[in-house]
Structure formats: C-alpha cells, structure tokens
Amino acid sequence: MGMGDWIEGPSAPSGGNTGKKIVCYFTNWAQYRQGDGKFLPEDIDPTLCTHIIYAFGWMKKHKLSSFDASDDTKNGKKGLYERVIDLKKKNPNLKVLLAVGGWSFGTQRFKEMASNSYNRRLFIFSALNFLRRRRFDGLDLDWEFPRGNEDKKNFVELVKELREAFEAESKEKKLPRLLLTAAVSAGAETIRGGYDVPAVAAYVDFLNVMSYDFHGKWESMTGHNSPLYAAANETTWRKQLCMDFGVKTWERLGAPKEKIVVGTGTYGRTFTLANPKKNGMNAPSSGGGDAGEFTKEAGFLAYYEICDMLKKGADYVWDDEQLVPYAYLGNQWVGFDDERSIRAKMNWIKANNYAGAMVWTVDMDDFRGRCTSKTWPLIGAMAEELLGRPSRGPKNVLPIVKKPRTIAAKSTQTTQAPGAIKRIDNLKAPQSAQPVKDEAPEPDTNARVVCYFTNWSAKRKGKGHYEPEDIDPTLCTHVIYAFANIKEFKIVSTEPVDEGTGGAQKGFWERIVALKSKNPQLKVMLAVGGWMLGSAPFREVTENSYRQSLFVFNAIDFLREKGFDGLDVDWEFPRGAEDKKRLAGLIKELRVAFDGEALASKKPRLILSMAAPASFEAISAGYDVEELNKHVDMINMMTYDFHGDWERQVGHHSPLFPLYTASNFQKKLTVDYSAGEWVRKGASKEKLLVGIPTYGRTFTLGDNNLTDIGAPSIAGGKPGNYTGETGFLSFFEICDLLRSGATLVWDNEQMVPYAYKEDQWVGFDDQRSLKLKVQWLKQAGYGGVMVWSVDLDDFKGSCTGQSYPLLTAIKEELKGYKVANLEVASSNVFNSYGQLVDPDEVVCDEEDGHISYHLDKKDCTMYYMCEGKRRHHMPCPTNLVFNLNESVCDWPENVDDCKHISKTSSS
C-alpha cells in the first residue's frame, strides 16, 4: 500500500471500556533535562495510561532501594515517588508500579540476588516493605537480561516467590495484592536463552515486551528502532528484528496473549550517514546521530526533538513493508514512530488480542505540543485506539515532506546478536582456600557442652540470684539464652532485663554476649519458644510462606544486631502431620537463609539448633527427624522430666536406664532409650546432645515409710527457698536438703541418685551420675551434652566449696573424647552428589552452544569463556585485565579490584 491508500482500522467506541492496558514508563532522570525537555510528575496526563511504572528503583545488598535523591520525600519536600502516586487522585483507577533494574543497572546484581533462596527472600521482603510504605501498587522486574540455564531457572524462582509472597501478604494484611510485572526482551535469541516462558508467564500479571531497540548506533547501517514487520529483502537474522516476530516469539513459546503488553517507543534511534546520498533503510552509517537539544544522547532523539528535525526540512519516508517512518536531513538519519505507525501498531495489537501497549517513555512524547497544537500525539493515539478515548484532534498532522521509500541493496552484513554481557559492581579479591589458623590452644575434646541460661533466674533472691556475669564461660562451648518470644511473627524480648533500660544499664543480651571477651571460642545463641510460649505462635508463624519468611529474615537481622551466634528453636511441641510438616519447613528455611546470609555477608554462618523432646510418642507425633537432621547443627534432647509431680507415684525424672521390673512403656522413659529413638528415626549421633538437668523433680510422699521408686505420692514437693516452685528444686537447694539430714540413695539400675527426708522425696543428678552419663554417651558416640540450666548448678559452691560441681564433672569426664564425623564445615558448598566443590569454580551449562564470559576470581588477567558446556580458560592481552561489566579485557584502572595490577606486573 502507498501512503495515500493506507487504511486505518476502526477505533473503539468513545469512552468505551475495552479492558486493554496502556503501561507508561516514567523516568526519574527526565526532571534534569533543560528547557522544554524538563519533565516532572505533574506533567503526566493520568487519564491516558492505565498503569504508570516509575523507572527506576535500585538494589543495595540484595534489598530494594531508591536510586535518585529526589525519589523519596525528605525534610518536608515531596519526593517524585509521592508526586507520581498522587496522580491517582485525578484517576483513581490508575495503578502506579516501581521498576527495578534497567540497562544501566546491568545483570550482575540480579544474578547474585536470584542465585539462592536467601538472597531472593531478602529482596522480596525488602520489596514488600518498600512498596507498601511508599504506596506503590506493584513491582516491575527489569532484568536486562537473564541468560543461560542458571539465570533462566533462578528468574522463575524469583517471580514464583515474589508472586507467592505478594499473595500471602495481601491475605495477611487484607490489602489489594501488589502487581507483579516484568520488562522482557523482544530478541528471539535472548528470549529462548533467558526465559522459561510458560513458567514466568504463570506468575506475572503481565509482560512488558520491549519491542524496540532492534537497531541502533551499535550497527554500521541504518535500521528502524521498532519496525512492525521485517522487510522482504532482509537477511534471515534481521527478519527476526521486528515487533511482529519478537512478540509472537513470546506467544509461540507459551505466553498467554492476555499477558502480553507490546512495547512502543516515543523516541527514535539515529545514525550519521556515511554518504548522505545513501539515505534509505540499511544505508551505511558511521555512528550514532548527533545528540538532541534536550536528551543530549548521541544516537537518540525524543519524539519532540524529531518534530524539530522535521520542521527544519528533514525528508520523511513511510516504509510500506515495515509500517513505520524514518527521516533524514543532511547526514542525520532517524527511525521512529509517529501517530500513523502507532495507530497501525495498536490495530495490530487488537487484531492479535494482546493485552495492550507499553510506552517507553511518557516523558518523550510531545507532551508540550511542540510539533503542533496537540499534546500527547503518540500516547493520545494509543488511548483512542485501545481505550476508546475521544479523539484529541486531527490525525497524522506532522509537518512532513513526502518522499518515496528508497530500498537499499540487500546487504550481506548481519547484525551480531548481543554477547553475554555480565555486569558486576566490584570484583572480589581472591580468597584463600585455606582455613585461618586459630591461635588459641586446641581443646582436648570437640564435644559440645551447651548451657542454657534463663533470664528469670535474676528474679531469685539471696544465693539463688543469678546474672550473666555469674556464668563461667570456660565450662561451656555454647550458651543459649532462654527465652525470646514471638510477636507479630517477629522475635521479641520476654523480660525488661533482656534489652536493658538504656544508658549505663546494659541489658542481659549484651552482657551475656560480652562473655565471649573472656572466651573467644564461646558461642552465644538465643532460644525462642519454650514451654510457656507453647505451640500457638509457631503455628501462626508457619501458617503461610509470607509469615514464615518474615520471621526468618527478622530473626537474622535480630541475631546479627544483638551479636548472637545462632538460634535455638524451642517449639514445645509440634503434634500431628501438619505441625510436623511446618516445623520441618521452618527449620529448612532458617538453614537456607543462614547459609545465604553468611555467603552474602562474609560472616560465620549463624548456628541453628533445636530443643527436642525425649518422649518417643512426641518424637513420632511431631518430628520429621530425617528432614530436620539435614538442616540443624545440633539437636538438644530434653532427656529429663520423664517423671514429675503430674504423676501420683515417685519416679526419677532423668534415669539413664530403666528398672529391671519396669513395664514396657516405662522402659522407654529413659535417657538411653530416648537418645536411641532419635538415632533410629534418622538423626546423626554427632548432632545429638544429651540433656542433663541441674535440678530435681520432687514429690510429697503418701507414706513416709514407702520411699522406693514407684512409691505413692500425694503432690509435688515443697517449693525451694530460692526457686519457689512446687515439685522442683535446684541442685544447690538439693544440697541444702542433704545437709539437713536427708537420706541419699543410689539406684544401681537407673544409675541415678534420689533422696528423701520425712515426706519429701527428690530424684536428681549428682557428680557420680553425670560422670556415668558422660561415659555412656562417649561409648555411644553422641555429640556432647546440653545442660538445663547453668543457673541451677551450685554456682556459688555452697555444697562442697567448689563452684559448678556438675558442669565441672561433665567437663572433666569429656576430656580426650573426640566425636566422630563432627566436621566444622558449615561454610563448605556441596554439589548434588554430596561432593565438596569450590564455590568459585566456573561450570559451563549454556544452551545451544551459546557463548558467555565469566570472571576468574583468582587471576584478574584471565577469564573463562563458556561455549555451551565447554569451558575455555583465556588470557587477556599484555597489560590488560578482564572487565566483567563489559565482557572485555580492559585497563586495570577501569576495574575496581584489579587496580593493584600495574601495567608492568601484568605483562
């Protein structure tokens, strides 16, 4: 068709609601243009767009952040975020999203963020908070571009987890769900190499296909920025470089039409002609065109700058094959979209039933009416065609000089597909693979001695009063602070003393962490949960992925801020299939997050342990032992409280073995059986820590003459002078009972002592029984002991003059014991076969022989080239180092972490 007989398709009825989208990008750098190019949020006509996407947000340490100082409202001055969102006052149906990424942002930050679950969750939860606080309606991912199998897989994981979190957060807070969109390439090779199309499309609300920038100054011949169709005489490769082919590639690979939003440009790509007389498509060029008066970028003009060029007498040519115009003036050439081509594209969108159009960008249309008296000629035409908006004036009113299209001879030159450009902010200096030697003397045992400290022990009076400084930090390998609480799915304190009152009055958390100054090898952890907290808060946390992830990531921040070395999960007790599944899921997510955070922060990984029941029934009812064992560092078996004042006969609460006469059920209520049950269910012995009580369970006898195990009782024993709890005495209170004349009995079958005086009876552990328990655990090969609790031992030495007699007995008996299979390898990375691998090793796994480039982290002057699955180790030329940002060999001064390499030393 010629220019005179080009036929427009029918417009939608005026004011009709077609359900189509017009997605308008706004750039936060448009404010810095001078004169008529300056563009602010208030310049936007909010009735023309259904969605506005603010470009761009940024990412810092895998968290969503602002990019420009003007983005956020500060010191009473409204930021651009708020000013764009305020447009919804004029159009309540308008949706405003924030885009993160973009071409200048590069790919490396996305690659690193999406590479593991921890980094992704860190980003996701920062995004939720960031978007809600600023009242955005959603997030647009602009990763330019994922490439290769790993990126492809990780991008799917990212959009999947974002969508799940957005849905869960919406349900949790009873707010409209945040929208999730993605700006994606229209290049066929990039689509196939970087996107699992059906999977990505399943999770996003819509895809903003960037069907522009098909040609530009990076080529040596002219070409249109965004042709609707390819010319018949193009090479096979160049025929792919058009809107029709690129968008339909998404459709062919599985994207639903109703999620495809077609990208259009309100700018043109310009060239400087090598010969002004050769001025058609595919004419030779010598570079980009001159920078525009307002946009000031070579090879690029905003639509209103193109209008100025046409007003100066540029020749306008309509291309009947590609259905787009171009213009030239002297040696300047520009391919662009005008109202006519925009209407053709909108009709094509409607004919193909796509979701709508995306505009890059709203600030480059003729928003001031410089071309003619009509503002917004391009986006206005879109709104008329797609949304049924009333006509804003005559169509096709550009001041043009019509010229017949000149078809250049078919060129044999082809545009090369973009290389695998990978961006990174800082190359990391080579890390030594050798572990750092600890100057402290090697301990005589690698067994763990885990001591719980209770924050309520400071409430006791007299010699029972206990504070963090009363702990002997040389007796324990780990101190666990009990307990923290859970409130609104976050860790919080349970006592005012935890955090202190500020000023000179330090809190217990800080004071207990300070014990590491006396023993640098000591690990101090925080326990969350406990008997008093119960199951309900844990069930609430694990109700959905949003709550669980909120808890996990808050926990990491909390532990790092307070200086703790790890977390002890004390859910007492999960019960039933659902609880069992939830606990396993929580522990797994904690471990994955701890691993990821350590990798990102370069800090030692946070330790993960769990307090676990000794009851075989409780184990079976609530614990997926094999799954839990994969993720925890330690399992603190609570091998005590087998008997107590809830029964009406006396019994020792922590017998090592059963009585010979015990029933089959009673034989299972022992330390030996319970520890074995954890092993039988799939726990590793080296992870199992045997619970040791420093207290006794007491009874009031029904008959003072009947004192053996199994004798009748009528209630718990009398409260101790310091602990003040019925049925319970600390070891130092038991000492007082013994010194008052109580009879001490050794049970040779259960290997534990008990004592009685008048109607009071107590079963407990002393130095003798603890030595036997430690001998037993050494023979069995367990990982050490857990002590409940450090503040119930005779810490003042009131019994024998020796402080901490029970802990001391444990430590003495553990000397020389080496736990088998106990590896300090928390930072090691294993492959799917369980083999230790070097995390810096480059593994090539590219599709279809695709070529990509990778950093050699050990040598700045070398790099890796992947060709499909083949890896080549390549040197840079003399005096150069590898620049991952540009995928080229470059001068050392241009690569941050290679600046130390001089031109002479790199030769």
What attributes characterize this protein structure?
hydrolase, TIM Barrel, elongated, Chitinase, 8-stranded parallel beta barrel, Antimicrobial Protein, Tachycitin, Chain A, 21 helices, 8-stranded parallel β-barrel, chitinase activity, disordered N terminus, disordered C terminus, about 900 residues, alpha/beta
Describe the structure.
It is a single chain. The protein has 907 residues and is of the alpha/beta class. It folds into three domains: 21-266 and 338-395, Alpha-Beta Barrel (TIM Barrel), CATH 3.20.20; 448-693 and 765-814, TIM Barrel; 849-907, Chitin binding domain (Antimicrobial Protein, Tachycitin, Chain A), CATH 2.170.140. The protein is 25% helix and 22% strand. The protein has an eight-stranded parallel beta barrel, surrounded by six helices. A hairpin with a 2-residue loop joins strand 2 and strand 3 (63-65). Helix 3 crosses helix 15, helix 15 runs parallel beside helix 17 (625-631) and helix 20 (767-780) runs parallel beside helix 21 (805-814). The two termini are 62 Å apart. One of its GO terms (molecular function) is chitin binding. Residues 841-900 form the Chitin-binding type-2 domain. Keywords: Chitin-binding, Disulfide bond, Glycosidase, Hydrolase, Signal. Belongs to the glycosyl hydrolase 18 family. Chitinase class II subfamily. This is Chitinase.
